[in-house]
Amino acid sequence: MPRVGLIAGNGRFPILFARSAQAAGYEVIAVAHQGETEPALDAVVAGVTWVKVGELEPMIRTFRDAGVTQAVMAGGIRKAALLEHFAPDARGLAFIARLVHLGDDALLRGLAEELESEGIRIVSSTLFLESLLAPAGALTPQVPTEAQWRDIRHGIEVAHAIGRWDIGQSVVVKTGIVLAVEAIEGTDATIQRGGSPGAVVVKVSKPQQDLRFDVPAIGPETVRVCATAGIAVLAVEAGKTLVLEKEEVLRQAQATGLCIVGVEVGGAPAEMA
Fold first, then answer.
1. Is 175 helix (H, G, I), strand (E, B) or coil?
2. Does the pLDDT of residue 86 top 70, yes or no?
3. Nearest in space to 57 (alpha carbons), one of 28, 86, 31, 85
4. Is 60 among the domain residues?
């Protein structure tokens, strides 16, 4: 049975990836992060090594000993975790010392290069999960109004602007006014902070984002937070955003009246679907 490595972050993404890889006939060897990865991952992989955030040597040793030559990064590491329980080993410290800055993109690309120097190639985290990528157009019976489409287009422009600075992927907009932009707290906390009845949330990839890792994703918790905050529309980038637990997401969205729409994002503003 072929093997694939899994560098697991938080959320349900690592578990969904592991199940999909197994269904495709792969044995999954995982490295999970203490305080971030869900313990339930243990039950759905062939083997797992738990490490502290920042430990590189046990990660590399686990994959090398298992004969893993390709791996994916699934699930994020909360930026706050770098302040709460960051515990790099000697190799991790040497890795950090070589970085010019500690933004998401620099860290993830640097980690990919570190692993590839050991013969472990990082491949797209959407491997086996392409069917979960959001299509273009409305995913729900509800569709955006013309005014909401204006907010969506404005939100994309703002999200790309903050993305270029490696700040975040999401913004909250209402009647052309930006109510919140994502920073260290993550998408759900941004929605809670900027939520207002009738507001629009836009979540897109950063212009320079390497989609081998850190793929934008939404799930049932995102919908729950939107409903609590009074959000009317959740717009995500078509073809580049994972909809995790899709059936539950759409069920909750329909029950709460939330419109979820996939938008094509390119050099021009998003078009109405």
1. coil
2. yes
3. 31
4. yes
Please state, in angstroms and as integers, the Cα–Cα distance from residue 201 to each residue in 74, 111, 147, 173, following that order.
23, 30, 14, 6
> What's the number of domains the chain is made of?
2
CATH code (residue 77): 3.40.50.20
| Confidence at residue 82, expressed as pLDDT on a 0 to 100 scale | 65
Say if 269 falls within a structural domain: no
Higher-pLDDT residue of 148, 270:
148
Q: Are strands 242-243 and 217-218 parallel, antiparallel or unpaired?
A: parallel
What is the reported pTM? 0.85
Looking at residue 198, its amino acid is G
Percentage of the chain beyond pLDDT 70 is 94
The tokens for 49 are 């090594």
Domain that holds residue 233: 133-263
User: Which of 122, 152, 181 represents a domain boundary (last residue)?
Assistant: 122
Q: What is the CATH number of the domain that holds 180?
A: 3.40.140.80
Separation of alpha carbons 229 and 130, rounded Å: 30
193 and 118 belong to one structural domain: no
Residue 262 has pLDDT above 60, yes or no: yes
Those residues with Cβ within 8 angstroms of residue 80's Cβ, 6 or more apart along the chain or in another chain: 184, 185
Which residues are 121's β-sheet partners? 70
- Ordered strands of the 3-8 beta sheet: 47-51, 27-33, 3-8, 70-74, 121-122
Q: For the chain, give the mean pLDDT.
A: 91
